[in-house]
Amino acid sequence: MKFLLPIIPIILLLVSCHSNSDTGNTGIIARVGEHILTKEDLASALPPELNSEDSLIITENYIENWIKENLMYDLAKSNINNMDEINQLVDNYKKSLITYQYKEQLINEKMTVQTSDAEMEKYYKENADKFSLETILIKGLFIKVPVDAPQINKIKEWYKSPSIKDIENIEKYSLQNAVNYDYFYDRWVKIDDVMRLFPAPWVNPDALLRQQKQVEVQDSVFCYLLNVKQALFPGDTEPYEYAKPNVREMIINQKRLDFLRDFENDLYRTAVDKRMIKRINN
Predict the structure, then answer these.
(1) Is the model's pLDDT at 24 over the cut of 80?
(2) Would the N or C end of the chain have less CB density within 10 A of its end CB?
């Protein structure tokens, strides 16, 4: 720790915390060199609604950490040997941040991000290769009933049938007897979401669903029944209704890029016309 000895006098001279001179009308409660911590800074940094005991501890810890941070910063700044490079990085980051914020402001103020169904369907058809499934999707029907439920043999027949009458029978039966009933013949569901409804994970859902459309599992308490009306597998093209949110997002992102590109091109042309650009050839 010998390397700290030379800066001890500096610390004693620069650090002032809760001193009478700083806590008067100025509102300053700590000072390290050119860095100042005010009551307003402290109030905005601390969480609201602290009790008095917690407030005192947290306040003292914050002030101490603030002092240490600024002492280390000043020491580092006076000893580091690549400040020019750091300043360039800071300038580049500042420029990028300001530009990004302004682009977002432009988009929010000037750009229309609405997309029509016709536009989305056209994009989907023209970019089908971008919508390849990575998981199994199914449409179907799931029922979970107690093993001692009445007429359980009937429900085991009905759930396999696509007829409207049998589906109505299932719905009526489920109101009084089913622990869980989900009809999703009309929408695509990820297989992982369905597998969570069963007491244990499936070993190979891809192979299973390619061979059969009904899955029956029973434990000591419940009977789990799944009828798969339709299945799509990894590598198949995502159905439009499933891909629709991604299609909309892709179109919006493309519109954002096009808008910013056109804006930058217009800005450049205007600058050229007004002779605001000077190119110096070496």
Answers:
(1) no
(2) C
